[in-house]
Design goal:
- The complex is a heterodimer.
- Chain A is mainly α.
- Chain A has a single domain (2-213), classed as MetI-like (MetI-like fold, Orthogonal Bundle).
- Chain A has 9 helices and 2 strands.
- Chain A has a two-stranded antiparallel sheet with strand order 1-2.
- In chain A, a hairpin with a 2-residue loop joins strand 1 and strand 2 (75-76).
- The relative contact order of chain A is 0.15.
- Chain B is of the alpha/beta class.
- Chain B has helices at 3-8, 55-62, 88-97, 113-125, 129-142, 158-170, 188-203, 215-221, 239-244, 249-259, and strands spanning 17-26, 29-39, 44-48, 70-75, 78-80, 98-101, 176-180, 207-211, 224-229, 232-237.
- In chain B, the strands form 2 sheets. Chain B has a 6-stranded mixed beta sheet, sandwiched between helices.
- In chain B, helix 4 (113-125) packs across helix 5 and helix 6 (158-170) packs parallel to helix 7 (188-203).
- Chain B is globular and about 55 Å long.
- Chain B starts with a helix and ends with a helix.
- Classes of the chains: A mainly alpha, B alpha/beta.
């Protein structure tokens, strides 16, 4: 099983890319989502522009731009750095849009009740709006995470040694029928990796539903 | 212990409220046209009138859920001019003094009944969890829902949810309570249990402003009946007098529609 061990060499990098980019996204999207629903037109416009710009350009283009297009003094991105930043920023944009949708689908009366009770802005946001929005968006976030896991393979194009890169390397060294093997394996690995995410998300979702109707 | 003693908290004073020359428009559409209303401490004011008259908007202007374009609001020693910049301390003071109950209850669905009532106490009044929970249990018992403390609102009937919402507002020791069609989302039988709680509250001397279509309640419980139509108050006074002998043709038409059906 040379093919398997070759592909597995890329597994830690795939996981690291995915998790770091996801973490950046999950956290960075919060202020952006707030900005997207800000009452200040300028703030809202700037955030909207950022989201649409980032989402409008394919990930592969962002990665090339970051890897080869940026040089500040002597600083240049190494492949892994460019991939993490690129996938992270894209995640910020997508997740912010998901958050915004969630926040807007919380009934208006919830915010009004909080204001009428005299709860402050922060308490209203984090104590009332966010928990309800999270319940609404948690399946979408899980879907995004499985998407991101697969999109991390795009980093192979800027020479990040993740699973698909390793598969390609193996295939090049074995230009026979055997060369197809790593691709089959990597496909199965992606499925295996996304299953627990989907499972956990469904469990979380049903637990939160139970919590509310219990 | 009566409801008002609980609502009083330790020593919450009764408040009146004076709303003067309140106007509100959305673009070209006038919603409130120079409306004034004075509510004496410890009295119940019922606001009735056809839909679209501006009753709810007027009520929501009282605690600035809607921001009027002009006018003054005077509660206790505080005078607020909503047309100008309202500083956050005045706003907080106003909302602390004025409790509100909504047509759609608006309980927080992710919190148990108990937490719905305790959470605002902890955040707004800075009570400890134990103090807040103790008070919440008192109020839940008073509205007859002690056994629902650990349940989430989704598991409670509409009438139960509304009573929990009343307890939630009372827990902050308001001097005035606003009710925005509190029984309109409930079927008539279930509405009775909510009205019973409100009657008791009124009997205990809580200052209340109630937007309602419950004519019986308005006649029996309120001290002042206010009729709104076309963005204005067209008639106000003793509820029995107005209901039996309305001075305005518009009032007569409205009362005929709601009483003689």
């Amino acid at each position: 099983m040379d093919a398997l061990s070759a592909v597995l060499q890329g597994l830690p990098m795939t996981l690291m890319l995915t998790l770091l980019a996801f973490t950046i996204g999950i956290i960075g999207a919060v202020p952006l989502a707030v900005g997207l629903s800000s009452s200040n037109v300028l703030v809202r416009l700037a955030c909207r522009l950022f989201v649409d710009l980032v989402r409008g350009v394919p990930i592969i283009v962002w990665l090339f731009l970051l890897k080869f297009g940026i040089q500040i003094g002597t600083f240049k991105f190494n492949p892994v750095g460019a991939a993490i930043v690129g996938l992270g920023i894209v995640s910020v944009a997508y997740l912010a849009e998901i958050y915004r949708g969630g926040l807007q689908s919380v009934p208006r009366g919830q915010g009004e009740a909080a204001h009428a009770l005299g709860l402050g802005r922060g308490t209203t946001f984090y104590g009332v709006m966010v928990p309800q929005a999270f319940r609404i968006v948690s399946p979408s976030i899980a879907t995004y995470l499985t998407g991101l896991l697969k999109d991390s393979s795009i980093a192979s194009t800027i020479i990040v040694t993740e699973m698909v890169f390793q598969s390609q390397a193996f295939a090049r060294q074995h230009p026979t029928v055997e060369g197809i093997l790593p691709y089959i394996i990597v496909g199965i690995l992606y499925i295996v990796l996304s299953l627990p995410v989907a499972y956990l998300s469904r469990r979380l979702d049903s637990r939160m539903r139970k919590a509310i109707y219990a | 212990m009566t409801l008002s003693e609980i609502a009083d908290g330790r020593i919450a004073p009764r408040f009146g409220i004076k709303l003067d020359n309140i106007s509100k428009r959305y673009g070209d559409h006038v919603v409130l046209d120079d409306v004034s209303l004075h509510v004496e401490p410890g009295t119940v004011t019922a606001l009735i009138g056809p839909s679209g008259a501006g009753k709810s908007t007027f009520l929501r202007c009282t605690n600035l859920l809607e921001r009027p374009d002009s006018g003054t609001i005077q509660v206790g020693q505080h005078t607020i001019e909503p047309g100008k910049e309202v500083n956050s301390r005045d706003l907080a003071a106003l909302r602390r003094t004025v409790g509100m109950v909504f047509q759609s209850f608006n309980l927080f669905p992710h919190m148990s009944a108990l937490k719905n009532i305790s959470f605002p106490q902890q955040k707004v009044l800075g009570r400890s969890k134990e103090e807040a929970d103790e008070r919440s249990m008192q109020l839940l018992e008073r509205v007859g829902l002690k056994e629902k403390a650990s349940q989430h609102p989704g598991r409670c009937s509409g009438g139960q949810q509304q009573r929990i919402a009343i307890a939630r507002a009372l827990a902050l020791d308001p001097g005035i309570m606003l009710f925005d069609e509190p029984t309109s989302a409930l079927d008539p039988e279930v509405g009775l249990e909510v009205l019973a709680v409100m009657r008791e509250l009124a009997a205990d001397g809580m200052t209340m402003i109630v937007v309602t279509h419950e004519m019986q309640f308005a006649r029996d419980v309120s001290d002042t009946l206010v009729v709104m139509a076309d963005c204005k108050i067209i008639e106000q006074g003793d509820p029995r007098a107005i209901m039996s002998d309305p001075q305005e043709a518009r009032t007569r038409r409205f009362l005929r529609a709601v009483l003689e059906r």
